[in-house]
Design goal:
Distance between the termini of chain B: 23 Å
Helix content of chain A: 55-70%
Protein name (chain A): Vacuolar ATPase assembly protein VMA22
Oligomer: heterodimer
Largest sheet of chain B: 4 strands, parallel
Shape of chain B: globular
Shape of chain A: elongated
Strand content of chain B: 15-25%
Radius of gyration of chain B: 17 Å
Order of helices and strands of chain B: EHEHEHHEHH
Family (chain B): Belongs to the V-ATPase F subunit family.
Number of strands of chain B: 4
Number of helices of chain B: 6
Radius of gyration of chain A: 26 Å
Structural class of chain B: alpha/beta
Structural class of chain A: mainly alpha
Subunit structure (chain B): V-ATPase is a heteromultimeric enzyme made up of two complexes: the ATP-hydrolytic V1 complex and the proton translocation V0 complex.
Strand content of chain A: 5-15%
Order of helices and strands of chain A: HHHEEHHH
Strand order of the largest sheet of chain A: 1-2
InterPro entries (chain A): Vma22/CCDC115
Number of strands of chain A: 2
Pfam families (chain B): ATP-synt_F
């Protein structure tokens, strides 16, 4: 029934092939009206919205702890040693970046998926951008040690902006903010998911009104 | 008929920040700070001297840069440019409103959550389901 209404009436005979656009619209309607598809979207929307709100509560708690640790570090180091005037504008790439991938769930729209990449060294950033570079494989144990020492090195480099003698509270604050970053990336993924479901459901509501 | 939303895939994208000093310092400790060859940063520190125009310009810049995947903005700062944040609707970069030390997060003011509240309004449910 739905298919007949969607085929344009302007002189297209029953035995003639419908236009490509009409076929695409028909296919899209079939995807939306698949049994259970709407319920699945509603569940996906509710689940991801619930997760988003949970992560936001967790973020508030983690950030609260991080600010407390930062304030404690500032108290022991002095305000002059821990403020943004120490930040210089010399070229340096970010050590913690994101990878964006596209999730395609057999629909016409896609949603973004964010993956956090922590403490990537500047050499590795250059290799990522150079698609012709090759890297010989290393044994697994060496990889773990290399990764661990690289993470330690990058963390130390980040702390060194504020001096050589770093109090334990500042290191603790750094780790708290790292945890906050992980929560934020999960929030971004949940946001992408519920916005995707919302747009699909919104489209369904609009089509029903028509 | 909606066109397919384009998600730009990228292997190394940045996190931008528009927040107070402590929040920015903290996330810089976590390694997200980036300064490019033109000495442009991926963060704006908001204090009492920062104007609304500066915040607007930073928001517009971060949301149009191709190398930025997420923009973190303190919710009290987002409230200063609420009309701009509300009108933003691209999937990437994602905008996340975060709490600050003096201003806790309020889901009622979040732009993204306000947008999806429509789905639960009596008007949308009643008119679509008769």
């Amino acid at each position: 029934m739905e298919e007949r209404h969607l085929i344009p009436e302007s002189g297209v005979a029953a035995d003639q092939e419908p236009s490509q656009e009409a076929v695409e619209v028909v296919n899209r309607r079939e995807v939306r009206l698949r049994p259970g598809a709407e319920e699945k979207l509603v569940l996906q929307f509710m689940d991801s919205l619930n997760s988003y709100l949970s992560f936001s509560h967790s973020l508030s708690s983690t950030l609260g702890q991080a600010w407390m640790e930062l304030a404690s570090a500032r108290h022991s180091m002095g305000t002059a040693r821990l403020n943004t005037s120490l930040l210089d504008l010399k070229f340096h790439p970010a050590s913690t970046t994101l990878k964006i991938a596209e999730c395609d769930d057999d629909s016409v729209d896609a949603k973004a998926r964010f993956v956090l990449r922590k403490w990537i060294s500047s050499e590795e950033v250059g290799e990522d951008e150079d698609s012709n570079s090759t890297k010989s494989p290393e044994p697994a144990d060496d990889d773990d040690e290399v990764c661990y020492s690289q993470v330690r090195r990058e963390r130390a480099k980040s702390l060194s902006v504020f001096g050589i003698l770093i109090p334990p509270k500042l290191r603790a604050a750094q780790q708290s903010f790292e945890r906050a970053l992980e929560t934020l990336v999960e929030m971004a993924n949940m946001q992408s998911s519920f916005l995707y479901s919302f747009h699909q459901l919104h489209q369904e509501v609009e089509d029903t009104k028509e | 008929m909606a066109n397919r939303a384009q998600i730009p895939t990228k292997s190394s994208a940045l996190i931008a920040m528009i927040a107070d000093e402590d929040t920015v310092v903290g996330f810089l400790l976590a390694g997200v700070g980036n300064v490019d060859i033109r000495r442009k940063t991926n963060y704006l520190i908001v204090d009492s001297k920062t104007t609304v125009k500066q915040i607007e310009d930073a928001f517009k810049e971060f949301t149009t840069r191709e190398d930025i995947a997420i923009v973190l903005i303190s919710q009290y700062v987002a409230n200063m440019i609420r009309f701009l944040v509300d009108s933003y609707n691209k999937p990437v970069p994602a905008i996340l409103e975060i709490p600050s030390k003096d201003h806790p997060y309020d889901p009622a003011h979040d732009s993204v959550l306000s947008r999806v509240k429509y789905l639960f309004s009596t008007e949308s449910v009643a008119s679509g389901r008769r």
